[in-house]
Amino acid sequence: MYPAADVLGPADVITDPAAMVPYLTDWRGLFTGEAAAVMLPRTAEAVAAVLRWASQTRTPVVPQGGNTGLSGGATPDASGRAVVLSLERLNRIRTVDPIGNTLIAEAGCILATVQESAAAAGREFPVSIGSEGSCQIGGILATNAGGIAVIRHGMTRDLVLGLEYVTAGGEIVRGPKRLRKNNAGYDLRHLLLGSEGTLAVITAAALRIVRPPPARGSALVAVASPDDALRLLRTLREGAGEEILAFELMCGAEMDLVRARFPQARYPLTARHSWYVFIEIGGECEASVSARLETALSGAFEAGTIVDAVIAATEAQAREIWHLRFAVSEANRLAGPTASHDVSVATEDVPALIAGVAARLGTEFSGTRALFVGHVGDGNIHVNVLFPGNDALAAQGAAVNAAVYALVHDLGGSISAEHGIGRLKSAVFARISDPVELRLMREIKQAFDPAGILNPGAVISAGEPQPRDAIPSRINGTVALTTTSSADQENDEREARLRMLLNRRS
């Protein structure tokens, strides 16, 4: 028996190769590794025991939640030395407090379970993604996940009051505290959030829950340019303020693909347009929501900011509008090889990013098509570059990636808006990071994990496993870039979120 079994007992350790398979490949299929064992602790004390053992034996530990990440951050390398530390059995909701608007969940809790627990108390945990039926709170925290409501509620870190975690040496930092005001010393919580399991292992969190809006309203708006989309956002913020729940941008070429793939889908506008904005706002009643949308859009018409618009009068119409947004993934798959990029810039720089990418690709990579879709309200744009029917162009994927990331870097943006660095982007992250910041990050890593056992290869460490032929790969005789999956899940996430919201209302 592998010695790890002595730490937890045979019932909580997997060493059978066949049984370990689901833990050894990332969600997108880009990374596959090997492990000596999969450890499944049930308590923070058991996590501490595993980490003490790993520290003593210098065994690499790869923390893993629901294994739904998009950057290969929870996959061991190919050496077979590491153990996967699955948190799936730490899955209790400890407390729900609708007065203080807090909820304490253990790291292995499924996100949907957290949402259901909040809903049972008349509250909402406003982080929701398509994998919510399988992703776990620990992974959500470790990647600082986004979701569709970032424009309203911020990233995951904005919804976390306190953490309980275990250090690399096996010491438990008890908690989590539910304090909204706590200026006692350094706030280590924010170092751990988004650290992808490289600094410590989160075992529980105190989360902020909110009162959900009683009513929601949706609209599809046509604008002439991304600049006009930002003008519309300003108008809407002046009229609806904090009630904006979603503000999504899509280029006309992307809409064309969607309509070609789904000819039965209802397109509610009267003509084809260059750019579209999908809007959702919340309010106290349907009448007030509709009035706010009508007032904002009427003013935008008068100002020449928008050229066409339709407001959903029913939930069925809202579903039809959002279907056009969420169908992007399948439409892009039909279009052929695609290189997808999850990037962010300051909201005011979104038009410059879009113009820069389009110009550079047109000059240096003729034959490619740049499509844009994303959460313009928070500066997060997904740049989907199509290589239609041309294997040689698909082979330029790495150069296209470098060009896109260079433009993002020049605008002071991020190469990872929502999905983390993981192993997928660790090399480019090291190249483009400020050297002082990178040195400080390495020093923080050394302070938290001097033996280097926690998730080696992720974020800033060396030795990451190599993805399988990411550019290009052949599937059933056709060339496809495996990076397509990033945009695919992004759109699937929103469709699942919409279905959940509509089901809750019905």
| Quaternary | single chain
Rough outline: globular
What portion of residues belong to β-strands?
15-25%
> What number of domains?
4
Reported CATH architecture of the largest domain: 2-Layer Sandwich
CATH topology of the largest domain, by name, is Alpha-Beta Plaits
What's the alpha carbon Rg, rounded to whole Å?
23 Å
Average pLDDT over all residues? 87
Instruction: Show unreliable segments.
Output: 462-506
> Structural class from helices and strands?
alpha+beta
Residues in helices, as a percent range: 25-40%
- The strand line-up of the biggest sheet is 13-10-12-11-15-16-14
What is the makeup of the main sheet? 7 strands, antiparallel
Counted by DSSP, the helix tally is 18
Termini Cα gap? 53 Å
CATH class of the largest domain: Alpha Beta
Let me know the number of strands.
18
Question: What's the quick description here?
Answer:
By secondary structure, the protein is of the alpha+beta class.
Describe the protein in words.
The chain is an alpha+beta fold. It has 4 domains: 5-86, Uridine Diphospho-n-acetylenolpyruvylglucosamine Reductase, domain 2; 93-208, Uridine Diphospho-n-acetylenolpyruvylglucosamine Reductase, domain 3; 215-326, Alpha-Beta Plaits (2-Layer Sandwich); 330-452 and 474-489, Alpha-Beta Plaits (2-Layer Sandwich). The chain is built from 18 helices and 18 strands. It has helices spanning 5-8, 17-20, 44-57, 111-120, 137-143, 150-153, 189-192, 226-240, 252-261, 286-303, 315-326, 328-335, 350-364, 391-394, 397-410, 426-432, 435-448, 484-505; strands at 13-14, 37-39, 61-64, 83-86, 93-97, 102-106, 160-167, 172-173, 200-208, 215-223, 244-251, 275-283, 308-311, 338-344, 369-375, 380-386, 473-475, 478-480. The protein has a 7-stranded antiparallel β-sheet, with helices on both faces. A 5-stranded antiparallel β-sheet has the order 5-6-9-7-8, sandwiched between helices. A 4-stranded mixed β-sheet has the order 1-2-4-3. Mean pLDDT is 87; it is low at 462-506. This is FAD/FMN-dependent dehydrogenase. Keywords: FAD, Flavoprotein. Belongs to the FAD-binding oxidoreductase/transferase type 4 family. Residues 31-212 form the FAD-binding PCMH-type domain. GO terms for molecular function: catalytic activity; FAD binding.
